[in-house]
Amino acid sequence: MRKLKEIILNNIHLKILSLLVAFLLWLNITSTQKTRLEFYAEVKVLNKPKSVEIVKVEPEKVLVVIEGLRTKLNEVNISEITVYVDGRKLKAGKNTLKVFVKPSKTENFSVIQVKPDKVSVYARPK
Question: Which of 64, 58, 63 is nearest to 119 (CA)?
Answer without folding.
Answer: 58
